[in-house]
């Protein structure tokens, strides 16, 4: 059967004459950092002075939620302004095929994840259409190489990093991906890391690899920032891979600072199929990786000051979901989830509540704090408000009904084009009235879990079984109150049926009404 794709067409817009007055937006989202992994959120084993300083200069959010408890769908919620009951990508569906050799190392010829729906607009497409320079550095996770959704096709001017999040399991990889309009690229290409491929991907010889992806990505991101000018606004998405497993990095002063100090040390024996190399010092590696990330954030802050861009840049730091226990990570030792229950892949608070810091000099009060609940799908309307982009959800709505995108996409002839977010700019700036969600919603098929938060009430569903918690009295979700408040359970279950749209790729068990 020949598949038909209806292509999203960018609307023509008039760019304001005083374009330089529009704020820049720089969104830094790290990978698998727990709520308690920053010292400004309670971490005791190490300090994060630069991120702490960012918090002191802006607002620290205490009820910020990821879009999902894992990487690809959480990023999809951010990109699409949809929650995980509406957005197409709801899990880490992988595409790996073919074989190619890099030196003695066999790797996949095509890699990546399920593509974003090309008929639903994503954030960089909006901002590019509105005259912003767009750059993304880190993980893409919104389509596989050569698919209908890669950075070159989705509004990104400059990209450097990993198209595939599985490839990002290796911090010393065989290659990274690049798309650069300035270099004349017409599609995403692979940049082979020539020094790395002289050595094995796994085992003792892996220690001889020197091209560290987290540093390379950061260097490309800084180079892109240096190219930005005051007369044209920019939208940067820095999806840095630290501190996700594997727990490996250069043996430099950052690692040496913790060696032998975080005892008892953890000896991790490795997981070759998952591309997690062994390490005898997992605790030191993890602490040093967060310290490295903190140093990189400090360098970004310093560069914005140097370029005279700091005052007109909304700078955000957050994490894509809760903490992991892969690759030797030890969430119990570091108390990653802070005061919350659950890890990555769980819709309990520890899997979805994330650190979130935003700075905008002159607009957001320094040293402020807010417990306003919001989720990643609220960032599309918030960013559009910041940039003065009006009625985005009408101007950028799909123009034609979706038929079938490709063989992996479910057929849905008349599926609505949802936008689920509410701007939280009034909370950030203290100006205007903050609209409130009736509730927040999550679903994740891999662990067969859902969750709904409405005020202080939180419903967690696993394999169709419900549990009810009062987050104000019980933030760790220890006491199930479902039998005491059946009417609240029913009302929240009804919200699930309102929010969930079926997906053949990511099926999930709904609780009975």
What are the defining features of this structure?
single chain, 513 residues, alpha/beta, Alkaline Phosphatase, subunit A, Arylsulfatase, C-terminal domain, 10-stranded mixed β-sheet, 4-stranded antiparallel β-sheet, 12 helices, disordered N terminus
- Please report the first level of CATH classification, the CATH class of the largest domain: Alpha Beta
Inertia-based shape: globular
What value does the Rg take, in angstroms?
22 Å
Written as H for each helix and E for each strand, in order along the chain, the element string is EHEEHEEHEEEEHEHHEHHEEEHHHEEEEH
The CATH architecture of the largest domain can be given as: 3-Layer(aba) Sandwich
Short description:
The protein is of the alpha/beta class.
Describe the structure.
With 513 residues, this protein is an alpha/beta fold. It has two domains: 19-387 and 416-438, Alkaline Phosphatase, subunit A (3-Layer(aba) Sandwich); 448-513, Arylsulfatase, C-terminal domain. It has helices at residues 49-57, 71-80, 123-129, 213-226, 253-256, 282-306, 331-334, 349-352, 379-387, 392-395, 425-429, 486-499, and strands at 24-30, 59-61, 64-65, 100-102, 105-107, 133-139, 158-162, 175-180, 189-192, 234-239, 313-319, 356-359, 368-370, 374-375, 440-444, 449-454, 457-462, 465-470. Helix 1 crosses helix 6 and helix 4 runs parallel beside helix 6. The protein is globular. It starts with 23 loop residues before the first strand and ends in a 14-residue tail after the last helix. The model is unreliable at 1-19 and 400-414 (pLDDT under 50).
């Amino acid at each position: 059967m020949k598949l038909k794709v209806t292509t999203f067409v960018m609307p023509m817009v008039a760019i304001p004459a005083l374009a330089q007055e529009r704020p820049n937006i720089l969104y830094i989202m790290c990978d698998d950092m727990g709520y308690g992994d920053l010292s400004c959120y309670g971490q005791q084993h190490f300090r994060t002075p630069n991120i702490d300083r960012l918090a002191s200069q802006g607002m620290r959010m205490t009820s910020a939620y990821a879009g999902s408890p894992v990487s690809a769908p959480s990023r999809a919620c951010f990109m699409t302004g949809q929650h995980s009951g509406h957005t197409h990508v709801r899990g880490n569906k992988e595409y790996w095929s073919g074989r190619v050799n890099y030196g003695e190392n066999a790797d996949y010829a095509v890699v990546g994840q399920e593509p974003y729906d090309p008929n639903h607009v994503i954030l960089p497409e909006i901002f590019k259409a509105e005259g912003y320079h767009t750059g993304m550095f880190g993980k893409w996770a919104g389509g596989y190489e050569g698919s209908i959704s890669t950075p070159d096709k989705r509004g990104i001017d400059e990209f450097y990093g990993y198209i595939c999040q599985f490839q990002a399991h290796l911090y010393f990889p065989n290659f990274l991906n690049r798309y650069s309009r300035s270099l004349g690229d017409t599609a995403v290409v692979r940049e082979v890391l020539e020094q790395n491929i002289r050595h094995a991907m796994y085992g003792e010889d892996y220690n001889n690899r020197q091209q560290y992806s987290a540093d390379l990505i950061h260097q490309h991101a800084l180079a892109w920032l240096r190219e930005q000018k005051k007369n044209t606004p920019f939208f940067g998405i820095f999806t840095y891979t630290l501190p996700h497993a594997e727990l490996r990095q250069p043996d430099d002063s950052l690692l040496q600072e913790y060696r032998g100090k975080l005892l008892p040390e953890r000896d991790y024996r490795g997981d070759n199929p998952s591309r997690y190399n062994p390490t005898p010092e997992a605790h030191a590696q993890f602490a040093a990786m967060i310290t490295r990330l903190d140093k990189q954030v400090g360098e970004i802050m310093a560069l914005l000051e140097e370029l005279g861009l700091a005052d007109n840049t909304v700078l955000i730091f957050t994490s894509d979901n809760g903490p992991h226990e892969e690759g030797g990570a030890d969430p119990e030792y570091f108390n990653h989830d802070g005061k919350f229950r659950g890890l990555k892949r769980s819709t309990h608070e520890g899997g979805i509540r994330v650190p979130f810091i935003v700075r905008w000099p002159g607009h957001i009060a320094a040293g402020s704090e807010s417990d306003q609940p919001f989720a990643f799908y609220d960032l599309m309307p918030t960013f559009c408000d910041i940039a003065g982009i009006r009625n985005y959800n009408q101007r950028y709505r799909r123009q034609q009904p979706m038929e079938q995108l490709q063989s992996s996409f479910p057929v849905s002839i008349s599926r609505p084009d949802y936008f689920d977010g509410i701007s939280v700019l009034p909370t950030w700036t203290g100006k205007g009235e903050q609209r409130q969600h009736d509730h927040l919603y999550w679903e994740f098929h891999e662990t067969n879990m859902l969750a709904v938060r409405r005020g202080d009430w939180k419903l967690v569903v696993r394999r169709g079984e419900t549990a009810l918690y009062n987050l104000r009295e019980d933030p760790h979700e220890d006491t199930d109150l479902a039998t005491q408040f059946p009417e609240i359970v029913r009302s929240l279950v009804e919200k699930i049926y309102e929010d969930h749209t079926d997906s053949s790729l990511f099926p999930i068990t709904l609780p009975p009404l």
